[in-house]
Amino acid sequence: MALIATFNLCEKYFSLTRDYGVIVFDPDKVVQIAAGFDADWEQLDWVPSAESGLLWSNHNSRRLMASFIDSAQSRLDVQHPKFVDTPILERLVGAAQRGVHVRVLCGGKHGISEWDVLDTFSALRVLHYSGVKVHKQKQRQDEIHGTPRGVKQAYP
């Protein structure tokens, strides 16, 4: 069994924020997660299996995420603080244009570096212009780490 989660191991993330986690029981996925952990522990190079279905940054994450978005047929809900990856942005726009109901939940400027803020807000406007529903999380300190309890439209 493996736990993959957005929360940090501090009291406030269990009591004040709305974070989420997934407990993985699939033996093949658990073995791969453990192998990645072990490689990091031992400071070794490691390449994940391409067939696992798990997204691993700097290996297969963009390709599998793009494929996931491309395969959506009716609905995509995306929650992420920044949108600066053009291939993923293009696929979200493409999904909306082919009739997929795409909703994007973002955190506004919270947690975004000055380096990424202009690209993120430009990308969110492009998504909005393309028919994607874009909402900004309310900026309440007790709810900004994961999915918020309330949202407001950020790009009318």
Describe the overall structure.
The chain is of the alpha/beta class. The chain is 38% helix and 17% strand. It has helices spanning 11-15, 27-41, 61-71, 86-97, 114-129; strands at 2-5, 21-24, 75-79, 101-106, 133-137, 151-153. The strands form two sheets. The protein has a four-stranded mixed β-sheet, covered by helices on one side. Helix 5 links the parallel strand 4 (101-106) and strand 5 (133-137). The longest helix has 16 residues, at 114-129. Mean pLDDT is 82; it is low at 147-156.
The level of helicity is: 25-40%
Radius of gyration: 17 Å
Give the low-confidence spans. 147-156
Q: How do the SSEs run, as a string of H and E?
A: EHEHHEHEHEE
How far apart the termini lie comes to: 43 Å
Number of strands: 6
- Overall shape: it is globular
Strands across the major sheet, in which order?
3-4-5-6
Helical segment count: 5
